[in-house]
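Worked example

This section walks through a single chain of length 193. The input is the sequence exactly as stored; nothing has been trimmed or padded.
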Amino acid sequence: MRTTGGAAIAFAIAAVGLEFAAALMYAAAAGASGSLSVDPSTLLASGPSGASLIRWGSLIDMFGYLFLGPVVFYLRTRYSGSSHIDLFAAAGLGLVVIGSIGAVSMATAAPPLISGYAAATAAQKAALVPAFATLYRVVVLGMWQTLETIPAAVWLLGTASVARRQGPRSVFVILLVAGVINGAIAFYRLVAA
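Given that input, the structure is written out below as tokens.
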């Protein structure tokens, strides 16, 4: 079954909406921090409400990534025959897989650690801090802000280069801006590590 242009737009809008909702939930769990990353201990100490926000935010985030799949397939089909479009589509699917694995990892691992921390003794809390910090660094910094941004930039910028030649211009601009943002995040994480 092929995705039509209208369906691809609907999936793209839904993906952006879901990602925005997930970001709001993560920010609420972190105390409305607006930075690219937060201190993991802030999330760990967010209590039962934070655990619930992280769980549901991560599940929503997972669906946001999965909704990008039909967009990747549509753009691959739309620009089939273009040089390297299969490579760009593979990178887009890499984004979907990496991002959704990170989201489901946070949804399943973070809430029990956060809930356990709220009821833990001082010694148990001391043991939970490095475990949660490791989970956070692996998923948020490693998977979401480094590993996924590389194929995301390849998919977005590569497909933008094809859309620039074949149109429409609005698709080119959206892909270009999103690709530059992802490329900048990847570069920042790679050099700031």
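What to look for: The chain has eight helices and no strands.
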